[in-house]
Design a protein that fits this description.
Layout lengths: L2 H14 L18 E5 L5 E6 L5 E6 L5 E5 L18 E2 H4 L5 H16 L3 H10 L4 H20 L12 E10 L2 E4 L4 H17 L5 E3 L6 E3 L39 H16 L4 E5 L2 E7 L15 E3 L3 H10 L13 H7 L11 E9 L5 E10 H14 L2 E2 L9 E3 L2 H9 L1 E3 L2 E3 L3 H17 L5 H10 L10 H12 L17 H20 L8 H4 L1 H6 L1 H11 L1 H8 L4 H24 L15 H14 L1 H13 L1
Parallel strand pairs: 2-6
Antiparallel strand pairs: 1-4, 2-3, 5-6, 6-7, 8-9, 10-11, 11-13, 12-16, 13-14, 15-16, 17-18
Amino acid sequence: MSLLTALLDSYDYALEHDMVGKSDHFGNTLLPMYYNSMKSNGKNIIELLLSKESILLEARVLPDGETIQFPVTEDSVARSSGVAPHPLVDSASYVIQDGEKRSAAYIEQMENWLAYDANDYVKIIRDFLKKPGMLDAVKKKLKDSEEDEEKKSKKSAPSIDFEKVFFTFSIENYEGMKNISVSENIVLQERYKDYVEYQNAQDPAKEKIICNLSGKEDYLCIKHQPLIGTARLVSQITANDENYRGRFTTADQSIKIGMETSQKIHLMAKYLLSGQGTRRWLGEQANMVSWFSDDLSNAAEFNPTKSAEVASSVKNRLLALKQEKSDASMVADEMTEDIVKSFTNGKRLFSDDATYYIAIFDKISNGRVAAKYFRSLSASRLKENLVAWQEKYHWRGFSNENRGKEFTPSPRRIVLAAYGVERDGMLEIAKNDFLKNQYQNIVTALVEGRAVPRNFEKALAVNIRHRQNYDKTWMEVLFCALAVLKDKGGIKDAMLNRENTDRSYLFGRLLASFEYLEESTFGEKDGRSTNAEKMWTSYTNKPATMMLRLRNLIKPYERKLERSDEALKRMAYFNATREIQEATNMLHDSYDMDSVEVNRPLDYGFIFGYEAQRQAFYSGKNKDVKETEEVDHD
């Protein structure tokens, strides 16, 4: 299935389920055909309340953030210059009747609509606009409204630029005792659609075709509306010939899209790009949109790119997913928040039979939006891919509250850990285009069930050899590297493997032991860098040589700990020296320590030996202290 077909089918689904023109779970609206929307900034839209007798009752500036929807024409939705009025809601230069070209074209278009359909709603607005002194009446009502508001809030009203302001309308008691605005008038939406179709039928220049996407008879769309600003996803038929030259002689030979189809795919794409639950910003002008065929707004709040907590037992996690528990409380502490919400509890609003769509739109110029990526797959397959990803890429947390839980780093965290440079205590990537492309690569791998791209593995394997580059962000780089590289290295868990004779793993254990011994001498809160940290990169490049040097450097710390009056420090000495001896013996038993091979650079496996040894020291620390205190007390 193509992206355009997916957008078309999704809009048709919304029509069938009465979702068009109504606010969704997040307050966003999928616009009806031949409609557009506009958001208020607190001073750019004025709503006029009219009586059924076309008398102005009230004028108010719409609050910041409030959105209106209104009918548009093929020309007006993409206007940049010239005269192209919207049929009803428009800027002051069109709405205020001053005898100029714009206002004349606006009222003429409204009269043509009324000639076809004697719509009382439109007629009330038309009759008001034709009255003399309309602008003065609006300004007076607006001033009265502002004075009342200032008395209540004690804040001055924002200044209004009447040359740029848009006017929208509401009619008092239009449905019983209820005021109905242009945005709320559902009947108006259907009647305007009928009028547009009538106009198309009367226009001899309109060519009837069989739409390549819907398979239905329709009028050929000449001007596709912009998707982001003035940038278009589909080129106009009247565009320059470089859009089709080479394979085709005319533009309409490439693809024929009907007007109704064009409306549906563009309105659906705009809805997804504005949706709180469907849009993810990738960087610069690139956005990822994702949705389910039966949950268009993503009311389930499903986000596969979010950092996730995973089960310590894969078997338990898979079993929980297969059983599809309706009560998520049984697995909420063990599974990713999003998997729980989306696949196991009452908030799940899509089925395994649903199709999951993901696309990436990138505004590459002021005139062009590129669809950089599109994929569709079943919800059940997506679930399998996400579980498989989390089985591969997770590691336990480092903080005290998260030490017993395992987490999967989000794609963005992996990108920053692999390619970020530390600035002001944060990882940053200076080139936004590079960040966007790498984020796209890893997100698509996640959704499709592929492994983390090899370039990330290589970058992380390099970064963990340069600890001194990361003053404040080392733990973040370490966490992401451990999570991503564990599967590649065949590491099953974070426990210390005393049977592992891998050269890099053993040298990693020694490095952690040297570091722990020196830290224990001064205490964890001392803040100074240990010799192991300072010589980190050299150690990973020439481990055998630097091991001997580090052993000499830590001798004063060994003596200090051994002779300490504190039981904790003496225990740290015995623990560290025991581990150093064990790892050293295993190296001597497995390798020729005088050979060149044993001194070659370490691979990424050293970080797992290092981390496992560190965890072994600190996980047993409290137990050791308690036992020592009891012995001393006796």
